[in-house]
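User: Could you go from structure to sequence for me? I need the amino acid at each position, not a summary. Structure tokens:
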């Protein structure tokens, strides 16, 4: 098969690395890719947000299967354009991608299918939103809905903070906005990844990430500084509860609305007293959660993604080894604020690449025979082992072998489970 993966981060490096291991994969192209991906696949310079450009590329290269990594091309309808032209695609339609793009949409779906989640209300003006917060009290969560989605979440400790967040959204640069106010949920967060083929759903795996930039979960939020899988807090019983009360009802409601969800559903969950509630959905693999999942799944992922795209998940199963994986993100100093690009990363050649240790590249490019940093999150050092401690040791051994003074990482990834 000729396979095209869209994206160029650590998630796509991990996907490419795992898919490459499957004998069904003949030719593998990743667009745009990065310096690490170039070691396992061809990289193609392509504007992955352009439906026309992606379609033309897929036609010219006789692509049999397209795997869409990030959310932006999904929200831009690239999967629809490809499917309409007859391509086999892994990734939801633009309509179904609203489960990530719109907080209010997800809340409406949860209400319609009675899925447990935080109580919520939506406002289109600041005064009613402020009055609601005053009546509810703090802590409370304020989320921008619409185009700023994903960037505008404030977990407010005080009514004052919540009011400021509301004002910022309505004064903001985002144009027409609405705000979703949610009950603050206490508990432990974990991520659950489920394949959905439009009708059926298959639990793929669990992970936990570390969103804050600093050791001890301090400092500003990031896209994720590390992750590990499995997430012990998501017991089999809890996974069953989530499948029965949240995931399957969501899939059924989406199908009922004529927008069946086909792809990976990433359920962010809050767990307390042996019960899980939905925090949010994403419509793609998490980054860096994908790295730990792929490290554990290996080449079978291609068969699973194909079954998902072809609507034949029923009867499929995931072969899990009794193993653990852990990944540590190396980021450019300054991230998630401003950071410099172009610094040289050394020591990568000394790293072994096996099914137990892989440094996936997140933001790198090759320049004059050297690897340079091109992003905020730059490398994801990933280890696997029989225990989480072993995976942890292997991941940090990679970190310690990399010579990159302009980078940093958290030293405590996995602390909660270790
Ligand atoms: P979201 O973009 O909706 O995932 O929100 C980002 C982060 O804010 C989540 O990962 C949670 O840590 C936190 N968060 C969001 N909604 C809530 C909620 N209702 N209660 C508590 N924490 C929340
Ligand atoms: N690591 C969080 C995300 O991918 O959204």
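Assistant: Here is the amino acid at each position, in order:
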């Amino acid at each position: 098969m000729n396979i095209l993966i869209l994206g160029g981060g650590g998630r796509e490096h991990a996907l490419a690395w795992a898919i490459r291991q499957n004998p069904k994969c003949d030719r593998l192209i990743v667009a745009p890719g990065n310096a690490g991906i170039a070691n396992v696949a061809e990289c193609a310079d392509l504007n992955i947000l352009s439906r026309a450009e992606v379609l033309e590329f897929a036609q010219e290269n006789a692509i049999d299967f397209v795997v869409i990594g990030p959310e932006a091309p999904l929200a831009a309808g690239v999967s629809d354009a490809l499917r309409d032209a007859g391509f086999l695609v892994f990734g939801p339609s633009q309509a179904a991608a609203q489960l990530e793009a719109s907080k209010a949409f997800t809340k409406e779906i949860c209400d319609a299918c009675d899925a447990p989640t935080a109580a919520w209300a939506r406002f289109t003006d600041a005064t009613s939103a402020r009055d609601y917060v005053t009546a509810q009290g703090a802590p409370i969560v304020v989320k921008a809905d619409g185009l700023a989605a994903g960037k505008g979440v404030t977990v407010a400790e005080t009514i004052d903070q919540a009011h400021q967040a509301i004002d910022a959204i309505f004064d903001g640069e985002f144009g027409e906005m609405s705000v979703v106010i949610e009950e603050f949920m206490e508990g432990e967060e974990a991520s659950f990844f489920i394949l959905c083929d439009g009708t059926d759903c298959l639990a793929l795996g669990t992970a936990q990430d570390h969103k804050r930039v600093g050791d001890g979960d301090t400092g500003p939020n990031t896209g994720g500084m590390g992750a590990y899988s499995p997430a012990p807090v998501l017991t089999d019983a809890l996974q069953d509860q989530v499948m029965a009360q949240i995931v399957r009802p969501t899939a059924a409601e989406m199908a009922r609305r004529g927008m069946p969800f086909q792809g990976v559903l990433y359920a962010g969950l809050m767990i307390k007293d042996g019960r899980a509630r939905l925090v949010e959905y994403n419509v793609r693999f998490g980054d860096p959660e994908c790295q730990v999942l792929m490290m554990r799944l290996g080449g079978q992922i291609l068969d699973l993604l194909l079954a998902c795209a072809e609507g034949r998940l029923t009867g499929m199963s995931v072969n899990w080894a009794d193993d653990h994986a852990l990944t540590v993100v190396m980021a450019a100093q300054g991230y998630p604020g401003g950071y410099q690009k172009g610094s040289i990363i050394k020591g990568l050649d000394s790293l072994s690449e096996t099914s137990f240790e892989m440094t996936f590249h997140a933001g790198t490019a090759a320049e004059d025979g050297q690897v340079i940093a091109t992003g905020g999150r730059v490398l994801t050092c990933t280890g696997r082992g029989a225990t989480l401690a072993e995976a942890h040791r292997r991941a940090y051994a990679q970190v310690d072998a990399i010579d990159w003074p302009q980078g940093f990482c958290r030293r405590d990834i996995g602390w909660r489970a270790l």
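One structural detail worth keeping in mind: Residues 343 and 372 are 5 Å apart (CA to CA).
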